[in-house]
Design a protein that fits this description.
The structure is a homodimer. By secondary structure, the first copy, chain A, is mostly beta strands. Helices cover 4% and strands 48% of the residues of chain A. Chain A has one helix and eight strands, in the order E-H-E-E-E-E-E-E-E. Chain A has one helix at residues 7-11, and strands at residues 5-6, 21-26, 29-39, 50-56, 59-63, 66-70, 74-78, 84-99. In chain A, strands 2, 3, 4, 5, 6, 7 and 8 form a seven-stranded antiparallel beta sheet that branches. Chain A starts with a strand and ends in a 21-residue tail after the last strand. The mean pLDDT of chain A is 95. Strand 7 (74-78) of chain A pairs antiparallel with strand 1 of chain B, so a sheet runs across the interface. Chains A, B: Pfam families: Cupin_2 (PF07883).
């Protein structure tokens, strides 16, 4: 990919929630965008750390022992093995940095699992 | 690291140019911040892709065959092996995503090489 990426522009290309899109790769790592709204499912990633960077809106990232509120320009890296639950009262735009092996629903396959992520 | 990171707050902690700071790790990948001003040196990274995300200001990323202008909220991933030259007419704040093995001056060791990056 030899083109620059404008993050807002990419977000304007889709409307589904909880459906990550790939917008870049850096060696073994993917850069993904997703729109979140509502509550996801508790899960963890056995082997992957997962970075949530809020681009727009306000995200509540619940851990079992801690509530983390992320606003625009803030990020949190959920370490591998740590259970988490993203909650978006209103629509939130998130940029993810995570290993290419990362599945959105982590340790469980549910109806919300997205297996083959599109690149946009 | 179980604390969230506010990117602007981290940028307020240092003033040097061309001196990347580590602000997070995602498996084998580092998240770094740097303030850039002026012109760097042409270099490439033999094995590492390097993502430049502009947080503040406007960055000119010169490749041998292309000039890429990056504004706030835009990123470019320089593929491994591709020569590049960052140029910042005015101060620019950049977030980098790159493998932990990445050296700022790439294939050459110069007086601008930073070997042991601090975590802030």
């Amino acid at each position: 990919m030899m083109e620059k990426v404008n993050i807002s522009e990419k977000f304007s290309l889709f409307n589904e929630y909880w459906s990550p899109k790939i917008v870049g790769e850096v060696n073994d790592t993917h850069v993904k965008l997703a729109k979140l709204k509502g509550e996801f499912d508790w899960h963890h990633h056995e082997h992957e750390d997962e970075m949530f960077l809020v681009i727009k809106g306000k995200l509540l990232l619940k851990l079992r022992d801690q509530d983390i509120w992320l606003e625009e320009g803030e990020f949190f890296i959920v370490p591998k093995g740590v259970e988490h639950l993203p909650v978006a009262e209103k629509e939130v735009h998130v940029l993810f940095i995570e290993p290419k092996t990362t599945l959105n629903t982590g340790n469980q396959i549910t109806e919300r699992t997205v297996q083959n992520l599109p690149t946009i």
